[in-house]
């Protein structure tokens, strides 16, 4: 089963809007606008998390450390029951460092659905996590 041209275009707009809203760091608005309240969130190799709280527990860790995030969409596939997006994610940090990585997301939603019921992210986020860990260690030690 395939999607119509209008559904494909709507799906591509939805995923672009999804990332744009994420990049504003208004995580409450992002989750309530784009994800069902009982969303199942699978982030890399972590156990599945449920609900907006699960999503916020991961993305909220970036608060205070990341001051810029962008997604360059490299490939988007709109299917009848999901949108798949390959992207390059770039992060800017409060200490001036920057890093980027490739990521792949699957958002389980039909063309007519406003919100995704499942959100899967695959990628190696080690570079971002290492910088975040160094920033947190520095903050805990009181270093400037």
Radius of gyration: 16 Å
Task: Report the strand count.
Answer: 6
State the strand order across the main sheet: 2-1-6-5-4-3
Separate helix tally: 4
Helix content: 25-40%
- State the low-pLDDT regions, or none: none
Indicate the proportion of strand residues: 35-45%
> What is the overall pLDDT average?
94
Largest β sheet strand count, sense and barrel closure: 6 strands, mixed
Helix-strand category: alpha+beta
H/E element order: HHEEHEEEEH
Termini, distance in Å? Answer: 57 Å
Describe the global form. Answer: elongated
Task: Walk me through the topology.
Elements: H1 5-23, H2 27-34, E1 35-43, E2 49-50, H3 51-59, E3 66-79, E4 82-93, E5 98-108, E6 116-123, H4 126-141
Helix pairs in contact: 2-3
Care to describe what's here?
- The protein is of the alpha+beta class and 144 residues long.
- The chain contains four helices and six strands; from the N terminus they run ααββαββββα.
- The protein has helices at 5-23, 27-34, 51-59, 126-141; strands spanning 35-43, 49-50, 66-79, 82-93, 98-108, 116-123.
- It has a six-stranded mixed beta sheet.
- The longest helix is centred in the first third of the chain and has 19 residues, at 5-23.
- The protein is elongated and about 55 Å long.
- The termini are far apart.
- The mean pLDDT is 94.
Task: Write a brief structural summary.
The chain has 144 residues and is of the alpha+beta class. Helices cover 36% and strands 39% of the residues.
